[in-house]
């Protein structure tokens, strides 16, 4: 993985989220994706904070977009690793979030969101 790929991915990812287009967002994710976030635990009541599979991720994000219609992300930074990238952004309430995404075969196979003092509304 290189920084050019990471920047291009992050720009597409950000545009997808800011358009609230779930199909566009999910094109980057593997069918067997696993994703964890404290917001998953908050919205679903599942203390594991983890969803398994693209359709479960779709359902979780659809709920989030419904509950947070003003959702908007602002890119702060993008970093790369061997098979992963980190997107650092601010959400609609100014909270800092880092999204760590691990890739397999060009798609996100696992990831997690890490939040500062504020989650989402």
TrEMBL record:
It holds the Pfam family SnoaL_2. Residues 11-91 form the SnoaL-like domain. Gene3D superfamilies: 3.10.450.50. This is Nuclear transport factor 2 family protein. It comes from Streptomyces sanglieri.
């Amino acid at each position: 993985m290189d920084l050019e790929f990471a920047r291009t991915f992050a720009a597409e990812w950000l545009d997808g989220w800011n358009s609230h287009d779930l199909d566009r967002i999910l094109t980057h994710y593997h069918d067997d994706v696993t994703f964890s976030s404290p917001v998953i635990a908050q919205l679903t009541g599942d203390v594991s904070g983890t969803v398994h599979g693209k359709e479960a991720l779709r359902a979780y994000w659809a709920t989030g977009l419904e509950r947070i219609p003003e959702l908007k992300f602002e890119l702060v930074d993008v970093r790369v690793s061997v098979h992963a990238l980190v997107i650092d952004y601010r959400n609609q309430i100014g909270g800092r979030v880092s999204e760590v995404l691990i890739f397999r075969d060009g798609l996100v196979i696992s990831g997690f969101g890490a939040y500062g003092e504020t989650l989402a509304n």
